Amino acid sequence: MTNSHRTMLQISHRIQDLSQSQTLAMSQKSSELRAQGIDVINLSVGEPDFHTPDHIKAAAVKAIDDNFTFYSPVPGYMSLRQAIVKNLQETDGATFTPEQIVVSGGAKQALCNVILSTINPGDEVIIPTPAWVSYVEMVKLAEGVSVTIPADINQDFKITPEQLRAAITPRTRMLLLCSPSNPTGSVYTRSELQALVDILKDCPEILVLSDEIYQHINYTDSYTSMTAFPEIADRAVIINGVSKAYAMTGWRIGFMAGPLQIAKACTKLQGQYTSGSSSIAQKAAEAAYLGPQECVSEMCEAFRRRRDLVVKLAKEIPGLKVNVPQGAFYLFPEVSSFFGKKYGDKVIRSAADVSMYLLEEAHVATVDGSAFCLPGYIRLSYATSDDTIREAMRRIAEALAKLK
Ligand code: PMP
Ligand code: GLU
Question: Is the CB of 378 under 6 A from ligand 2?
Fold first, then answer.
């Protein structure tokens, strides 16, 4: 039988113009190689390797037994939002009402909700780079313009007040900050943030979107949330969630906390395209926030130990330039000293080549730094066991030593 009309499938320009998430793509690639029997060590995707603590899992089982199986309110159960308010009060000293919180399918959706709810076509969003892969793409979805501020290893990947001032134009509507940072692990100190706030306080049209998802994976003595600055308190939006702090990446619960008007806009948006997030996962997140918090500091301690190990081993590898990350679970070494070198028919011209070479030659998956808008670097996630870190770094050292 012949088909009389030709099928013409269209993919929108919006999606055609969107880049694929490189972190997820690299992770997928290493899973495929593993399925082929190749022993790949995956340092690409960033997620805790710990299991979700038992008391949180038990709360999810109880939620099912108690029939928390219906649609949940679009911004999340009131009980969860109250638990989040309590947590923000205890950890940051911040005062929010439950109406200012919107719970979403991970911090990712919370971020995208805020960007889509506040950015008009042509509005400029300042993004210090290197920055997590999805920020620029979310701004693109909103038809906004990303204005990146490069901050390399020589400034510990943190922008200066002068750089911020120079990036602001009459079209700037948002500053998107991430501390502790993915992909560098850098943490802004209170005085560094104050210096940025001193500029922002005179720019009432700029919203500060602060991604604090790695707040609890912080190796410095203190943590300063963007909620700490009264000068901008009425236009700071905080993003956080349970994925990293409680080892709950698969549960998909994150939230925004900010001005009521923006919370309402996010609820309207979410109500039209996903509704409230999973009822069961929300009950688990509630247990995470209200239950014992020792699990959070125990996991952070393990990440700190691994940070020390990975930094020590990376510093022993000739040609890698590393900083000492103060939070999160990433190392972002500079690899440009390998450009122009080769092994066999493999020639290294970029960090993407280094990353691909390490995958093929060392069977270690990393992510090319240009995915984070800073070429010349690669990202390693060290959220894995000490033994795996040792073996991965041994393989990396061996493969890089072959480049001449
Ligand atoms: N922000 C940053 C900086 C992240 O690294 C991640 C992890 N993918 C997210 C947001 C999203 O977190 P979630 O898994 O809760 O969506
Ligand atoms: N935050 C993780 C990463 O950057 C998860 C993957 C993603 O959502 O991008 O690797």
Answer: no
